[in-house]
Amino acid sequence: MDVKEVLLPGVGLRYEFDNSDGDRIGVVAKRTGDFEVVLYAAEDLDVAHPLFRLTNDEAEALAQILGAPRIAERFADLTREVPGLSAGQAVVRPGSPFVDRPLGDTGARTRTGASIVAIVRDDEVLPSPGPKEVLRSADVLVVIGTDDGIASVEEILDKG
What we know:
- There is one protein chain.
- By secondary structure, the chain is α+β, with helices and mostly antiparallel strands.
- It has helices spanning 56-81, 108-112, 147-159; strands at 4-8, 12-18, 24-30, 35-41, 44-54, 86-91, 115-121, 124-127, 140-145.
- The strands form two sheets. The chain has a five-stranded antiparallel beta sheet with strand order 1-2-3-4-5.
- The longest helix has 26 residues, at 56-81.
- The radius of gyration is 21 Å and the shape is elongated.
- This is Potassium transporter TrkA.
- Pfam families: KhtT_N (PF25991), TrkA_C (PF02080).
- InterPro entries: AAE_transporter (IPR050144), KhtT (IPR026278), KhtT-like_N (IPR058776), RCK_C (IPR006037), RCK_C_sf (IPR036721).
- GO terms for molecular function: monoatomic cation transmembrane transporter activity.
């Protein structure tokens, strides 16, 4: 999909794209942190009709809602394409020796061969977490690897 970015001096940035119905959609990212979603008039693409406004927090929530399923779909597609590869989840339970410690302290990849590709924390998705990302109680780790590797990551989180 082609997304056009336009600088709006003194205002922010506007992103535009045409959807599958042929409508031109615009998202104005204002310098204030707010966003405005607009629909352009088919008869005059210089005329934009505001659809709704979002605060920075609301835009972040919407991005998480729209982004999280896409991440899960991509991992599911990947595991279907590669024999022996699975996607799973491992929960950082209260009392885990890794609560409030960096992900790298688990040594999960080295010890299991499985990769932690995302952390789901409350309603937020942290894709591609680095070894310095601090784990919290109730974090859900998205793990790609063999079934044994995924099970081993769960065991590491529970027992160390």
